[in-house]
Design goal:
Distance between the termini: 34 Å
Structural class: alpha+beta
Oligomer: single chain
Number of helices: 9
Order of helices and strands: HEEHHEEHEEEEEEHHHHH
Length: 295
């Protein structure tokens, strides 16, 4: 039985501006884009000239890069590795008011899986490969090498922070950073709306891969299917999206080696239909998952 997850809180006095600045410069020297975060652990607002993106530097926050403003503007897009900017007089006022150092994970080439509570940590330990782990105030950051689209609330207590996002720097943590797995990428994928419905089907076989099955034992696959069934059965809302993400997660792990059988897929479809999904939607969601993963 899995041991209950424990929450490790981050104690300590409020860091001083000079300490925050030193941390920021150290991180920047390693290629991590940094920015100061104010009370509430949020970025500083845009200056008067840049309010509502009047400067034109980053319309709708979708175009990162510096505008002409020397201040700490545009939230995550303000993050920089330039020591001259970080220590400049315009930024000095922000460091005096800052409570912590933030950074842009995507700019550093990493993805942060933000786990907010003990249940989320327990899920991660059951589901995700081990990687560098950093304790937070309420939970943990699991940091993977590689970038992806950021998305909040991908499941209860779990956010993904990578491109176009910021995270708090809370120290080096423990463990060795590993490559971003398809299981995490699948969490942020929204189900596409098919242009035309897939043919009606009660079950659809997975496309078999040609490589050797890496799972070694049938118990690994059986456990994965059981967890997928439980994820669908436990969904209290957004059942439609949960079914798709679950199919995507199963296929990202088991879809390339050909070990999935019609019986496994039927179990997933049955769990989805018990939550009110139609057989047609199950078939559409499975097809969309296959297409998304290029299978």
């Amino acid at each position: 039985m899995t041991q209950p997850a424990t929450i490790r809180r981050v104690p300590g006095p409020q860091p001083r501006p000079a300490e925050l600045l030193r941390t920021a410069l150290t991180l920047a020297a390693t290629g991590v884009p940094v920015l100061p975060l104010r009370a509430g652990k949020v970025p500083f607002g845009n200056c008067h000239q840049c309010a509502h993106n009047a400067c034109g530097g980053r319309p709708n926050m979708k175009t990162p890069g510096p505008c002409q403003c020397p201040g700490v503007c545009h939230a995550w897009a303000a993050a920089t590795t330039d020591p001259a900017v970080i220590a400049s007089p315009p930024w000095a006022a922000a460091w005096r008011r800052a409570v912590c150092v933030g950074y842009h994970p995507g700019g550093a080439g990493v993805t942060v899986v933000d786990l907010d509570d003990a249940d989320a940590i327990a899920w991660a330990r059951e589901t995700l490969p081990a990687t560098q782990t950093v304790p937070t105030t309420r939970g943990e950051h699991w940091i993977y090498r590689g970038t992806m689209t950021s998305r909040n609330a991908v499941r209860p207590g779990v956010d993904i922070k990578s491109t176009m996002a910021y995270a708090r720097h809370l120290g080096p943590g423990t463990g060795t950073m590993t490559a971003l797995p398809d299981t995490v990428r699948a969490l942020a994928v929204k189900e596409p709306s098919p242009s035309r419905p897939a043919p009606y089907a009660v079950a659809m076989p997975a496309r078999s891969g040609s490589g050797e099955c890496p799972h070694r034992t049938p118990a690994y696959l059986a456990r994965g299917i059981a967890m997928a069934e439980q994820r669908i059965t436990s969904a209290s809302s957004a059942v439609h999206a949960t079914v798709f993400r679950t199919f995507l997660a199963v296929l990202s792990t088991h879809g390339r080696c050909g070990c999935l059988t019609d019986a496994h897929i039927a179990r997933l479809f049955t769990a989805a239909q018990a939550k009110g999904e139609t057989a047609r939607h199950c078939a559409d969601a499975w097809t969309n998952a296959l297409t998304t993963l290029g299978l």
